[in-house]
Amino acid sequence: MPMNLMHRKLCSSEKWAAAVAEVLPDWLARFDLGDDVLEIGPGFGATTRVLVDALPQLTALEIDPASTRLLQEKYGDRADIVEGSGAEMPFEDGRFSAVVCFTMLHHVPTDELQDRIFAEAFRVLRPGGTYCGVDSQLSFGFRLLHIGDTMNVLDAEALPGRLATAGFEQVRVRVERKRLEFSAVRPS
């Protein structure tokens, strides 16, 4: 999905990567992600940089060809980097122990496409697997950062029902300081 120049510079910066590296390990420690994890929409790879060192096996699915090439150059020797859409994943049913996504769902232009991503995450998860992630909520600064970008912010109140419709159970959604966190489990 298109990003304006300011947004691209921020998300590709070392400052952003360092901020992610500071908070992501503690967040990940709250979940048992298992042995084979899929990251949807890593973009410039700030989260991927942390995940490749924290997980036994990582696959990253990125829709943007240029970002996919960048990720392959940086992490292709330590992770499987695949170009494709989270709404039409090229993976077999029940392959992954966990699916994660970080600050990417607001770049998906419609609720329907987001729902397809939820359904695909459910499909590729093993029974008992976890789907979890973080995304931003609307604020003045967030809106400014997205001028000219796709921005479809998740509705925190509607998200539990949307994830349940995809088949998930044990859905948890929390908003704190304009940050939405969610987790859900594919039933065993």
From TrEMBL:
Coiled coil: none annotated. It comes from the Bacteria. InterPro entries: Methyltransf_11, Methyltransf_Superfamily, SAM-dependent_MTases_sf. GO terms for biological process: methylation. Keywords: Methyltransferase, Transferase. Residues 38-131 form the Methyltransferase type domain. Pfam families: Methyltransf_11. One of its GO terms (molecular function) is methyltransferase activity. This is Class I SAM-dependent methyltransferase. It comes from Amycolatopsis rubida.
